[in-house]
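so my prof wants the structure for this chain in the tokens format not the other one, which i didnt know existed until like an hour ago. anyway here's the sequence
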Amino acid sequence: MTVLQNTAALQNTAADDAGARHHELITLADGLAPIRMAVVHPVDGPSLQGAAEAQQAGLIRALLIGPAHKIEAAAAAAGIDLAGFEVIAVEHSDAAAEKAVELARAGQAEAIMKGALHSDELLRPVVDKASGLRSARRISHVFALDVPSYPKHLFVTDAAINIAPDLEAKRDIVQNAIDLAIALGIASPKVAILAPVETVTPKIAATVDAAALCKMAERGQIRGGILDGPLAFDNAISAEAAKTKGIVSPVAGDADILVVPDLNAGNILAKQMEYLAGALSAGIVLGARVPIALTSRADGPLARLTSCALATILVRHAQGGGPERNPQ
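here's what i got, hopefully its the right format
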């Protein structure tokens, strides 16, 4: 089944247009060669189903890494035939994460996907200074949010990895998100640096960082995006709110990327969007040598497919291919 066929099947089961922008991202991967993805500890139904559907859609070639008997039991319970999968047997989840990193370092896996283990357990070997997948860039996470009330995808960073990033870390967080948006075909993505107020206020560190990040972009220390900040959330996503407050900005009311002050703010924002605004989310970790699809047990099939599509597009874009269309 092709990506387009799989996407159409998902759309037919939907009662409305929820997830339309996620489908657009998935179709951006149509025609790209599937990537070899190490799926770490897929020993429950959701994680194994996600890998199976992504492989069936032609997005990935899954390497299932974990205790073989648990993978087989999960497959039997979910009605999944493992005949088309490569299973790499290891003893436990820690060993699965380490094996995935080993395969990625050796070039045998082009991306990694989280299965039924905690995120910190997966990321521990990734960030190991001696044997991990560190690059010159700080590792960060991006939520791709499909918000019904917003006219395009909204990317929120960092809401999952960096707890209280300093200015240097925020520079990498911003650049990672810009690079993702560009790989998805968004030319000059608009980046809103969020804070509680729109004015630079020394007592509110987030406003000072926002101003510094904008100046760094002017000086070429951040490339490829249009930055503005500090911007309060309402001004970042509502042109009417920005107009009411007299804010003249190329970003206000039209942001592609929201950069939050810290993990607390970002995680609360992303989950509010999901549970109160009906947003659908997908997650990807950037800044390592390979992209990492960081899924949750609560994620449905569409979120997992979208996370895999993001990884596929990133890998092929880095190799000189990828979409030229704009998914907005």
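also thought this was worth mentioning. The first helix runs from residue 3 to 13.
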